[in-house]
Amino acid sequence: MPAPAFHAIFSATVYPELKRIAARHIYRNHRNQTLCPTALVNEAYLKLYKHKNLEAIDHSHFMALSSRCIRQVLVDYARERGAQKRGNNQPLLTLKEELVSEPNEQNNVDLILLDSLMHKLKERDPTQEQVVELRFFAGMKNTEIADTLNISVATVKRKWVMAKTWLFREMNQ
Amino acid sequence: MAKIDFDHIEDLFILCLEQPLKRQLVCLKQHCEEGDEVYEEVKSLLAAHARSNTFLSEPIQIETFSTAQKNKICRKRQMDYLGKTIGVYQLDEILGHGGMGCVYLAHRIDGEYEQDVAIKIVESSTLETQLFKRERQILAQLNHPNIVTLLDGGTLNSNIHYFIMELVEGVSIDEYIQTNKLDTRQTLELIIKLGLVIQEAHRHGIIHCDIKPANILITDKGTLKLLDFGIAQHLNNNEANEETAEQSFALTPEYSSPSRHRQYTPVIGDDIFSLGILLSHALSGQVPDTSISKHTPFPEPNINKISTHIDDYELRQVFLKATHEDEQQRYASAQSFVSDLQNYLDHRAVNAVSNRSLYVLQKHIRRNPQYWIIASIMLFVIVISGSFWLNQLQIETETKQIRTLTQGMIDDLDNTLEELPQTTTIRQKLIEVANSRISQLSLKTGNNVAIQIMHAGTLSRLAEVTGHPYALNQGDVEGALNYYRQALAIYRSVLDKREDTINAEIDIAHIQRKIAEITAYEGNLREGLKGMIDIRLRLDQVFKNIPLEKQLPRVMFYIVEAHGYFHMSDLNYSDGLLQKAWAIVQAHEESNSIANAAAKRKAKEAGEEADFQEKEIDPIYNLPIAFLHEETGHLAFLKGQYDTAEHQYFTVLNKYGGDDLWKNKRRVARVHNGLACLAMRDNNTIAAKMYLEQRINAYKKLSEKYPTVKYLKDKATVSKEIKQIIKSEQPDPEMLNRVLSCDNPLKFMIPPLTTGKKSK
Q1: Chain B residue closest to A163 (CA)?
Q2: Under an 8 A CB cutoff, do A28 and B6 touch?
């Protein structure tokens, strides 16, 4: 299907939907539960599946675009919360490890910083940026990423190591 | 800054990263000048890599909110209600976030009495309001002690709605089971309670749609409370209503049925499915497994995998019935699900397990063992005195009836007793008594055929319990052979006088087979096999003019002979014999299905379709047919046709794995051993280990039932090696092969001896 048409549908329908779903999940009260972003994307897909124009869409294409949305939604939330805390920029979203290990060191991810670094990363190597997005923000496995981006699993691994190392260095500079 | 070639940096970084840590810089120096821009970049990346282990290692997760965070969100999203009053309640703190609104803790301030409540408030768009109203309506309909109670509800202004609920303080059901270490019975009782609540909701036409541990709380007092009817559906709400359609999307993947995953209109079966999953979660403590599905975006529950967490066969069947892929095959209602669990608790027959009469009888016996022992002894007395009475009347002509009556009774009693624990001695004693009585009777009545047949039948039973190696026996092989020979002599002597020629011949062949089996097991395989060949040639004559579909009694003889051949490594001959057995079974099934079709047509014409019952293969042939599947599997294994072997083994487990009959339990153990060896062929040590555990479990259960049988105890004993295998994440393949004797498969294929006293 022609890409522009898809993008139009996507931004008109998927993005607001994702936002809604994310909001519902975030505000829903389930004790000791964390939400996996993949579930968000999947739920959006389900909801929009009935949309006539979406029927023909390749699933992995959808997932790739949705991951971008998820990232945007989550970063927006982080900003919102940051603002709410009046400057105290403690993110709403944290890595899972934080729950089990000491919270002070490198486990806290500053999502807003991460997001801006990813924009930089994109200029260096767009594939690397996509791999990070799919893996970290959409929770995909290497094989799924390989399918989505149409590259080999070995390449996914390689791009991931590279991107992760670079991001880590930049964040800790 | 000059344009840096990022690809080059990446190549170099990856290349040197693959080196051991110490050699990384050396590697780098080999490829570029020290101090160079590229050198510095890669060097700093390598250094960063060493510290970046945990960085981004898990996908991002959204944390649950702390109370403080919740307050902020509720304040931000809604008007600040804290401290305000609604009706007679003052809102004290925020409890959490429901699907569409915030829930507050509130207390009564009118001084009437002390009462804390939960108040859910939503200020929202039209859509959310509608859903909210629906939940309120549903709760109002459901007045049940185990469903959170709706106290009141209303509207603050046009778009702010609230409802007041009882305050439920408790822990989720899975947490409750775990922290209180509930045993199976207590857990099932809890699930039963839940099932009844669901049934009540269904009775009001409401499907909950989101049954999962987080929605089932147990209070401090141990009361179960079902919450969150936020996405519940009305049964009759089928019209394509935008709002309901919108809500029906929400689901919890691990607990949702295939049709929920496919967004079909919710039905009762969806709740039954979730109850099934919850049952497994509650019993095993394991979060339900899911697997990615091609057809749905969410991972779906992996029923096969989940079922392996349930150790108990019957409960596993209940789980499988509740979560059957086809909604029609599930329990028709929460009530029937509950009843089946109750059946299990009461040792009644579980409906999810087939309705076989023997299974039902067995459950009855297990429920009332004492009663059954007494009843059987009394029945024996009746049989014996009844025989005297018959003697008085001297009914020569009703030979057949008498035989059926008396022998049938002895057989039933003995079969019954065989399934009772620790009864070999009692059985032998009882049969001895019966035998001596019947033998006296036989002498007195001279040539009364019926009584002679009964005598032979009793002798055969006595022989088995005395020392037939396949049976639970007293280990006296010589004694057994002696009884068999006596029985044989009697059967032969009455052969000409009997009208039921085929039965008469089968009776003789049966005894000959037993003798052949003992001979083979005593070490003289060739002689035993010769006996089996003689039987076959004789039966060829007997059945010469009998249509194939009526030759089912022959099946067992073919299998036993085939079994003998593959111990002599003559696999082709075995194959031929098993083929003959299959030909009979298939012919029988075909004729059954033709007869059924005709009968069905007739019933339809007569308008009695509802009462129509399909004729099925006589359950007395279940054992031979299970045996036939097993042997065919073994044969395929020995011939290297592993797919066939696997298929046959699974058939045994699926069709007959549930029979608690002790002969079948041993079969199940052997088949698991076979499956384990098949898994080993694929180097799947994990699966092999699992099957090995199943094998041990099967023997363990048998050993608990028959604690005096040494052989079972040996098989159930977990050796050091097995312990090591079970403990290990990746068991040693050699050790597994040894324990399973995969290199010498005949060893696990032989039905083992069960006497403890036998010398050889």
Answers
A1: B10
A2: no
